[in-house]
Amino acid sequence: xxxxxxxxxxxxxxxxxxxxxxxxxxxxxxxxxxxxxxxxxxxxxxxxxxxxxxxxxxxxxxxxxxxxxxxxxxxxxxxxxxxxxxxxxxxxxxxxxxxxxxxxxxxxxxxxxxxxxxxxxxxxxxxxxxxxxxxxxxxxxxxxxxxxxxxxxxxxxxxxxxxxxxxxxxxxxxxxxxxxxxxxxxxxxxxxxxxxxxxxxxxxxxxxxxxxxxxxxxxxxxxxxxxxxxxxxxxxxxxxxxxxxxxxxxxxxxxxxxxxxxxxxxxxxxxxxxxxxxxxxxxxxxxxxxxxxxxxxxxxxxxxxxxxxxxxxxxxxxxxxxxxxx
Length: 326
What we know:
Blueprint: H1 2-30, E1 53-57, E2 70-76, E3 79-82, E4 87-90, E5 98-103, H2 105-108, E6 113-120, E7 137-143, E8 153-157, E9 167-175, E10 185-193, E11 200-207, E12 212-217, E13 220-221, E14 225-226, E15 239-241, E16 270-273, E17 293-295, E18 299-306, H3 312-323
Parallel strand pairs: 7-17
Antiparallel strand pairs: 1-18, 2-5, 3-4, 4-18, 5-16, 6-11, 6-18, 7-8, 7-16, 8-9, 9-10, 10-14, 11-12, 12-13, 12-15
């Protein structure tokens, strides 16, 4: 009797397991995973202007570039931490950290461009009488020009404004060597308020057809832009115009030509990540360490360069997709 009862129990158990297994398979077969809703017509951040992406650094415990236009990186003290998507580059306020790498002509030959990344910064502090790591202008990225003080493209946190202690002054500086350009060095400063120690997304674009430089914060046109010629006292919103010569005013009363096609000259196929070209050891140019400058002390994630000026709708989609870990 005991054996009969035991065998019945085993039979019921096997039957139940068969039904559950087949039920699960039926559920899986009939109820496929719900796809993500597209954003801006894209399902993944890498779908945006895919043919124009010339650099993507995701910092997944390495400095590998998805496009292979940045190669042979030499890290100096580089570390990684949790980021917006996976891992992130982790700077330091106490120890110098940066990397030097080779770059292809896809980067040194940029005419139009978009630079985008996520950053998390405690801001920088004035070097005053005791300069040191984390004090002064913090270098984030530069394309090296070995015989010039500044690189071809430079992105860094500018020295702080004592009147606005919660403001991060993120600066883009470029040097256009194209013939006919008199005002070769141009810049734009994003004044970013109340974002210290939080992740935020930055995009900067340059369109040579319009000579417009544009800036976006978390996918939206940035406000209070200055650092360009004749910037209004209350700053510009969204974009500014760069000129090849003195415009004489924000409305260009001198009828100066636009900055036009951007062309770097004097590059040597090198870049610096996380520092200025003159702050590395040894310097990548013919300069030397500056008391007012330092390597980047914050965090960096999903660093991208495109060879076009992304449309505003694509900038917003890029921010949203990366925020959604896509």
